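Here is the promised in-class demo. Please do not try to memorize the tokens; focus on the logic of going from shape to residues.
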């Protein structure tokens, strides 16, 4: 008979005590920097607008949110000032060594910050709450000077292609990468296949890696770079080979955000049929959003780094019975 999660608690308790101290250290870090902790609803009318988003229904026409982003930006538009949240979120995706369908996300927003300022603050957080070197899943990363790599540089170095020159042209990207297209594969699909197979295995190993300046097609809720509109002011952070965080210099143009959402909604509906109401309140907030940057960081993955846990289930209080 398989052990119940509560029966394995004695084995996991040392890791979970470290997790609790980590949460306290996160709160102390942000309090010292003038941030206010907030709480927003978990059941929402729109869980997000990403094309491949797999959300869980919450009943009564609502969904369990996949991020507190929409709600937190409404607070920013209302004048909250710098805020952070440790939120439970849901993404209806399979369990893995680094993903649970229900997990904790640390999300924060800083007023007037550009990408360098947010990257600096993010790394300061890691240095404040983690040991000088962390080991997870057999990889050790020293938290001293992080690597900064643009997406164009990463694709040139590890995939041998000029990813910006092929933007939107899947045949050009496939030819440059010398790969065969899969049935129905478009530019975005191939971009993420190359990112996953050729680029990510090299990131965040001996040093942490900030992967910056994503193609504008992958801007999501980030603004385009004023110096180069081919790219968006977006970055991800990798530590011990694990994708730890995703960040944007926030888009404040409501019309452009609506156009992006409508395009993503059309694709999502065509591919999955899944749909929900547009969050008009969020789009209203985008139009009055102060200049800011925001970042979402996987807190459970952070706990894995702090404890050298083998898998994410080891740092969850009551993981699923099968994990």
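The designed amino acids, position by position:
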């Amino acid at each position: 008979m398989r052990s119940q999660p509560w029966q394995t608690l004695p084995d996991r308790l040392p890791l979970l005590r470290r997790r609790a101290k980590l949460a306290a250290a996160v709160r102390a870090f942000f309090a010292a920097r003038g941030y206010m902790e907030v709480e927003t609803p978990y059941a929402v009318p729109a869980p997000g607008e990403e094309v491949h988003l797999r959300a869980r229904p919450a009943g009564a026409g609502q969904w369990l949110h996949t991020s507190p982003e929409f709600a937190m930006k409404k607070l920013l538009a209302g004048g909250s000032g710098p805020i952070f949240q440790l939120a439970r979120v849901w993404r209806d995706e399979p369990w893995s060594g680094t993903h649970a369908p229900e997990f904790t996300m640390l999300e924060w927003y800083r007023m007037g910050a550009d990408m360098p300022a947010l990257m600096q603050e993010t790394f300061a957080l890691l240095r404040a709450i983690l040991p000088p070197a962390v080991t997870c899943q057999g990889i050790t990363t020293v938290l001293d000077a992080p690597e900064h790599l643009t997406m164009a540089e990463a694709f040139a170095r590890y995939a041998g292609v000029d990813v910006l020159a092929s933007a939107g042209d899947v045949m050009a990207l496939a030819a440059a990468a010398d790969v065969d297209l899969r049935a129905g594969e478009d530019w975005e699909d191939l971009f993420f296949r190359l990112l996953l197979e050729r680029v990510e295995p090299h990131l965040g190993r001996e040093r942490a890696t900030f992967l910056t300046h994503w193609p504008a097609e992958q801007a999501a809720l980030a603004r385009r770079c004023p110096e180069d509109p081919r790219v968006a002011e977006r970055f991800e952070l990798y530590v011990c080979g694990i994708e730890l965080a995703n960040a944007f210099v926030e888009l404040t143009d409501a019309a452009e955000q609506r156009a992006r959402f409508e395009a993503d909604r059309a694709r999502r509906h065509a591919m999955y049929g899944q749909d929900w109401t547009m969050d008009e309140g969020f789009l209203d907030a985008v139009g009055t959003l102060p200049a800011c940057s925001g970042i979402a960081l996987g807190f459970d993955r952070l706990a894995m780094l702090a404890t050298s846990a083998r898998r994410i289930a080891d740092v969850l209080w009551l993981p699923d019975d099968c994990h």
